[in-house]
Amino acid sequence: MSFKTKVYNLMKSWCDELLKTQLDMPDPLLDGAILCPGCAVVHGRCADMVLPLVLLYKETGEEYYLTAAKKLIDWTEHNLLSENKDYRNDLANRWKGTNIFTCLMLGETLHRFGDILDKETFTKWDKIFRERATAAIGWCEAAGPHINYNAGAAAMFAFAYNYTGEQKFLDNALKQEEFCRAHFDNEGLFFGEGKPLDGTTDKGCHFIDMGYNLEESIPLLVLHSIWLKDNEKIKFYTDRAIDHLGFLLSDGAIDNSWGTRQNKWTYWGSRTSDGMHEGFVYLAKENPVIAKAVRRNIELLEKCTVGGRLYGGLMYHSADEPACIHHAFDKVKSLAVMYLEMGDEFDTCESALLPREVEGVRKYQNGYLYTVTKGDFTATINACDTHIYTASETGGGAISMLYNRDYGAVMAATLYRFVTTEPMNMQIQRHVDNEICNTARLDRSDTDKTVALTQNDYTITAKSEKSGFEIKYDFTEDAVNICVLSNGDSEYVLPIVSQSGDSVELTDNEVIFKNMLSVSFDGEYSISPADEKRHFHPVGGFQYKHLTFPIKAKKELNIKIQMIK
What is the pLDDT of residue 389? Predict the structure, then answer.
């Protein structure tokens, strides 16, 4: 089976499952909306899946898909349209920034499939697009949103100019892209996912969120460049895409274990963003690294799909948590664009090496964020002070992500306290009353903003004079060694990713996970919970077993993590 066929099948499976809960009601307040089984609500942006529905109508000839698309637009017009002729995010939220993305989706549908729409539908949707696009002019300047909206506006206005030929759209496209271009740091990372957008923290760090950057902002800026046929911009954003792929793991996961909006992290991306595929597909033709990144990400989406429903991580299903439909109706448009634009470049890209697959140590965020790849392990060590939800820091020099090519994620940090900043966009767990912290830490070290990081070859040391501790992470060809030293009595908590049903073998000085990962140590330990129940957390979508080590003042704790040969 070609990879293009796989993309089509995944797209169709999501759409078919989503339409099972589309409402057929006499009341226009409900008719056409899609009810989310996971959240028991209607998510306002469900019309974002219109493009793939019309694509399926073209491919299959089944009127069912076109009817569903028409009903979604009608519901959105009836329920989400504001007095200013733009869309609100949902019925419980007056936020209008997402109008940019819905507008772009509808415009692309008209551009790609206008010839197969009946005249009445085309005329109606064309009028809607032009009104919503015009209403978006000036919105970013008035609202001052996070910078992903500026990137979205740059793309949408560029498209609108191509579609309508109206100068006002070109002027605004260029204005938004110019603003975005000024927000890249020395390592090529896009910042502005926090306020002020161009601000820096006490440590000189920028507000960066890798989920939003890789799944939304960079692909949208690529689209801006493609639609304006600007080769200089295409080259610039191709380079920035590769810079950002330094945070893509070899299984296609986006490492957002340290991002400012980590509370919306799903292992494959972010809860409400479209996906990298719709922008990066244009770059993949000439760049096998980008092609491989997109392919691996889609393969991960496949693994997170059960029964046609896309889950927010690999272990939602095993934790008996349902899937939120927001994930699928966001991503399915991206898959549709990829299907329409791709060739065979995704079938011939496996020999390319992703940046994270190349051994080395890379420094970001003014020296407070490191990535390390050695042997089959790769890690992120985070001492940034950039989290925008002050009660929810996760950093303090912790390993926020430890990944092994065979085991997968070994450690994946979560917030100290989970914050549901967007209740209608973020899934509430059915079986978790209290989302506990899953960041490896020494007491509350993960909220210590004074921690400094230093590097000596493949050893990264996190040290805090304020809290009186030092943690060394030493990476060798086949192991990760952690040495913890504290000035006072304390305890070190080490959450290990472990799925329900996987074996956990205990001895006096070693715990073996899944008959393949060994965690050995000197000193006492406890494992919690003692039974088979795992801690589940929506950030990343993992289940965990917690190892806890009591620490005596000025006495080293040594932990070794390695694969069993």
Answer: 61
Mean pLDDT over the full length of the chain: 94
Is there a single domain that holds both residue 555 and residue 409?
Answer: yes
22: which strand partners? 34
Name the region of 92 (left: φ>0; alpha: ψ -120 to 50; beta: rest). alpha
Q: Do 402 and 476 contact (CB within 8 A), yes or no?
A: no
Which among 305, 297, 263 has a CA at the least distance from the CA of 278?
A: 297
Quote the pLDDT of residue 274: 92
388 shares a domain with 332: no
Encode 520-542: b = buried (16+ Cβ within 10 Å), e = exposed. Answer: ebeeebeeeeeeeebbbbbbbbb
Same domain, 7 and 142: yes
Q: 397 and 308, same structural domain? A: no
Domain-located, residue 534 = yes
Please give the tally of structural domains in the chain.
2
Name the residue with tokens 């974002």: 48
CA angle (76 as vertex; 75, 80 as ends), nearest 5? 125
Q: How far apart are CA 209 and CA 222, in angstroms?
A: 18
- In degrees, rounded to 5, the angle at the alpha carbon of residue 74 between the alpha carbons of residues 73 and 77 is 85
Q: Is the pLDDT of residue 17 over 60?
A: yes
Q: CA-CA-CA-CA torsion for 47, 52, 53, 54, nearest 10 degrees?
A: 110
CB of 177 closer than 8 Å to CB of 159: no
The backbone torsions φ and ψ at residue 236, rounded to the nearest 5 degrees and listed phi first, read -60, -45
- Which of 285, 318, 347 represents a domain boundary (last residue)? 347
311 and 365: one domain? no
| CA atoms of 44 and 76, how far apart (whole Å) | 8
Is 61 among the domain residues?
A: yes
- pLDDT tens, residue by residue, 142-165: 999 999 999 999 999 999 999 999
Whether the pLDDT of residue 395 is over 80: the answer is: no
Q: What pLDDT is attached to residue 91?
A: 86
Query: Burial of 340 by CB count in 10 Å (0-12 exposed, 13-18 middle, 19+ buried)?
Result: middle
Residue 103 maps to a domain: yes
Neighbour-count burial of 316, counting CB atoms closer than 10 A to its CB (0-12 exposed, 13-18 middle, 19+ buried): buried
pLDDT one-digit tens code per residue, 99-148? 999 999 999 999 999 999 999 999 999 999 999 999 999 999 999 999 99
Q: Is residue 271 part of a domain?
A: yes
**pLDDT, tens only, 185-231:** 999 999 999 999 999 999 999 999 999 999 999 999 999 999 999 99
The CATH number that applies at residue 219 is: 1.50.10.10
pTM for this prediction: 0.96
63 Rama sector, left if φ>0, alpha if ψ -120 to 50, beta otherwise: alpha
Classified as helix, coil or strand, 40 is: coil
Tell me the pLDDT tens digit for each residue of 51-75: 999 999 999 999 999 999 999 999 9
CA 3 to chain centre: 22
Look up the domain containing 459 and give its range.
359-563
